[in-house]
Write a structure and sequence with these properties.
heterodimer, A: six-stranded parallel sheet, 6 strands, about 60% helix, B: alpha+beta, 8 helices, 20 strands, globular
């Protein structure tokens, strides 16, 4: 069934706002992104792993490549991998979806290539565990405990395995940073992790870390899109209130 | 070479994404007749037919959808011109998503149509429109009747109104123990309705699909039986049951090998029957037929009907469904890629554990178990799927999947309960003001699941029990408010942010705006 024209127009306005700000950022305009404590802590977590001489674990979640959260997670992996390679820290990437294996592997390889150490890249650090949720959780828990992981990052889409993995990590004293837009997993992460990025912060994380103009422009564009939604919410609420009333100026002005 | 490769990737990503973007922004269909997807839910006033059509439904054959429906009016004359009866309006919430099953009456000074509106909350309510000339309609702002939620959770999906002499009676469908029964409501002006409760229920498990009153006071009932087939019979409704039940044969009509709806229209001594049905799997569209005769045994399609017995040919199909079909075909590409991806995952697994076994070390035993389990599962699945009758493969399948994998998965899931408790314990330690509010709300939600105050009252005195019950009722209201209003508001806010973020991310990927690692 077709979406209504109202939805098409709103989608168009939001896309235009995001693209405009992206283009402006590319031309050199600077936008401000507020501090996100969880993202600041990524650097500290990598530093901790360096000091302890132990690996970090990065999970891009349980989603496939059709899930935007997975792609946002992989963008953060790119930054974390570069920083870890610079510091000489191993990065372990447990995966639940097989199609992500080659992309995550490429990201890690590129990180090594950037510091001219491609030969040090070990493809076995990117591990496909299982498509089964329970087996994936068990595999990741095993990896965290056997490899003696110092810091763990969970950036992406998760199911109930979020609590299984992070609660074990907490017991083992791992510094954990999570980010997800899955509403029902957010409380689990908040309880079990040291820092949690909620909803849209997941998408802003890579922009905040890389300071890439396109990514920063995207975040600035999102603010305009959210303003559009806010304005629509206020207008919709007013229309709903007045449409229940006999004195309905909205229908009076615009006609039925 | 590098530039060429980049252009190739960019072109492929952009082209592939553009198919979905265009399918979203452009109308799925351009052109075509107003009732190109079928016609159902009809009524006849004089020579004018009022009926329902709908935008494309991805439903099954003969499905009558409610969302996306709209009303059409057509004169049964040589012109056969049809036009939309009402337009949806953003400012009319009760029929925003659809309008179907009209019942139209000629009253003093004009016409009044009663129909089911699908609201912006997806609830179906009865709405009313007025017209002076029977062509231009003016819909009332709000619905005139809302079926009680306990009998119809989302509102009725079938409704008919007839003149009962001295007033109007509305029959609407309600769900009872998984089958459809009829409830009734009455009105003098088609605007103010009074619910009358159950009108007719058939013996279980029969479900009423459609109901019509005949001029002699008897009823015509279309029912669905346990086997899923439809039966047609007549009878007399008394005290909510059908008496003098008499099975009838379906009229032989080419367009309606399956009948889904029936409506009687009396015109003096002539009996007129509006019949809705579909012809088969080749053409899933519903059509309307108009039969007339002196009795039920003597019904024939009216003069001027089509060769298949339907009253009018459906409108011409849309001239363009190009992007939607293209998007559907392109989506078939995704499972292919996924299959290759799964192969990559398998290779990654084999290489990792194979190397570990070859290299030796303390974990090689687990790697060995993993590979043995992998090959055992693959072998058993191939064997079992090749010969499902073999008791050996059946037993092996049962052993590996039901007796090993399933309990192992359940064990992992069972751990969740213990982890929930320990996580909750940490979260609800009162150290800050925020934690105090969180703990208070959590305690309220947990304790109001059961009548706690009532129980405490029972330990004190009888009068304290009723005081406790009052407290429980108030506390439950606070709980419901916090869950439905506060929690929902937060959930929506998080959802909006994530949704906008996902759009921005998708745009970046689609337009290949991210820097590649090699740049």
């Amino acid at each position: 069934m077709d979406p209504s024209w109202a939805i098409r127009i709103v989608a168009l306005v939001m896309c235009a706002a995001i693209l405009y700000r992206m283009a402006a950022a590319r031309r050199g305009r600077e936008y401000f992104i507020r501090r996100i404590a969880g993202v600041d802590a990524i650097e500290e977590a990598v530093g901790r792993a360096t000091e302890m001489g132990k690996p970090v674990l990065f999970s891009p979640g349980s989603g496939g490549l059709d899930n935007m959260q997975t792609l946002a997670g992989l963008a953060v992996l790119s930054w974390v991998a570069k920083r870890c390679v610079q510091m000489g820290v191993r990065v372990l990437v447990p995966l639940r979806i097989a199609t992500v294996v080659s992309i995550a592997g490429d990201i890690l390889r590129e990180a090594f290539r950037e510091v001219d150490r491609e030969e040090a890249f070990d493809p076995n650090e990117v591990r496909f565990l299982s498509e089964d949720q329970n087996a994936y959780a068990a595999g990741t828990i095993g990896m965290v405990s056997r490899e003696g992981v110092a810091s763990a990052f969970y950036f992406g889409s998760y199911g109930f395995e979020s609590l299984l993995i992070t609660e074990n990590g907490r017991r083992l004293g791992v510094v954990q940073i999570a980010a997800t837009a899955d509403y029902f997993q957010i409380p689990f992460f908040i309880c079990a992790c040291d820092y949690t990025l909620i909803g849209e912060e997941l998408y802003a994380a890579s922009a905040y870390l890389s300071r890439d103009p396109v990514q920063v422009g995207t975040v600035a564009g999102q603010d305009v899109a959210k303003l559009v939604i806010l304005a629509l919410l206020i207008c919709g609420s007013l229309a709903a209130v007045f449409s229940q009333s006999a004195l309905n100026p909205v229908t009076g002005i615009l006609g039925r | 070479m590098k530039r060429f490769r980049r252009a190739l990737i960019w072109g492929f990503t952009f082209g592939f994404g553009a198919i979905w973007v265009l399918a979203f922004f452009l109308p799925s269909e351009i052109g075509g007749g107003i009732d190109r997807h079928g016609a159902f839910g009809a009524d006849l006033v004089g020579n004018r037919l009022y009926y329902t059509s709908a935008v494309r439904a991805a439903g099954k054959p003969f499905s009558v959808q409610s969302r996306g429906t709209y009303l059409v009016q057509m004169d049964l004359d040589a012109t056969g011109v049809r036009r939309k009866m009402l337009d949806s309006s953003f400012f009319r919430g009760h029929d925003y998503h659809g309008q179907f099953r009209p019942s139209v009456f000629a009253l003093d000074g004009g016409f009044r149509a009663v129909f089911i509106g699908v609201g912006n909350d997806d609830r179906r309510r009865v709405c009313v429109a007025d017209s002076i000339d029977g062509t231009n309609w003016d819909v009332r702002q709000n619905a005139v009747f809302d079926a009680p939620e306990q009998v119809s959770v989302n509102g009725p999906d079938w409704m008919t109104v007839f003149d009962a002499g001295g007033g109007f009676t509305m029959l609407y469908s309600a769900t009872e123990r998984g089958r459809q029964v009829l409830h009734s409501a009455t009105s003098l002006d088609l605007v103010s309705w009074s619910d009358q409760g159950v009108f007719l229920r058939l013996p279980e498990p029969e479900s009423i699909m459609s109901f019509a009153t005949l001029p002699d006071g008897r009823a015509l009932v279309l029912a669905r039986t346990e086997s899923g087939g439809a039966t047609l019979f007549s009878g007399k409704v008394e005290g909510g049951v059908l008496l003098e039940r008499e099975a009838l044969a379906f009229p032989e009509l080419q367009f309606a090998s399956e009948v889904v709806d029936v409506r009687a229209v009396s015109d003096g001594a002539i009996l007129r029957l509006l019949l809705v049905g579909g012809a088969g799997s080749d053409d899933i569209r519903l059509r309307i037929g108009l039969l007339e005769g002196s009795s039920l045994d003597d019904l024939r399609p009216v003069a001027g009907s089509q060769a298949d017995g339907s009253i009018a040919a459906l409108g011409s199909p849309a001239t363009s469904t190009f992007f939607h079909e293209l998007a559907g075909n392109a989506a078939d590409f995704v499972p292919t890629v996924m299959t290759f991806g799964f192969g990559l995952g398998l290779i990654s697994l084999l290489v990792l554990h194979g190397r570990r076994i070859g290299r030796g070390g303390e974990n090689r035993f687990y790697s060995g178990v993993t590979l043995v389990a992998l090959f055992a599962m693959i072998t058993v699945q191939i064997g079992f799927r090749s010969d499902r009758e073999s008791s050996f493969w059946k037993d092996m399948n049962e052993l590996l999947f039901m007796n090993i994998q399933f309990p192992l998965g359940a064990t992992m899931f069972g751990l969740l309960a213990a982890y929930l408790v320990s996580a909750a314990y940490r979260a609800f330690r009162i150290r800050t003001f925020d934690a105090a509010v969180l703990t208070a709300m959590a305690a309220l939600v947990v304790l109001t699941q059961v009548p706690t105050a009532q129980f405490i009252g029972s330990l004190i005195s009888d009068s304290a029990v009723s005081a406790g019950a009052r407290f429980d009722a108030t506390a439950a209201e606070v709980r419901t408010w916090s869950l439905l209003i506060v929690n929902n508001a937060v959930q929506t806010a998080v959802g909006f942010g994530a949704f906008v973020g996902a759009i921005a991310m998708a745009l970046r990927i689609w337009l290949s705006l991210d820097k590649t690692a090699s740049e």
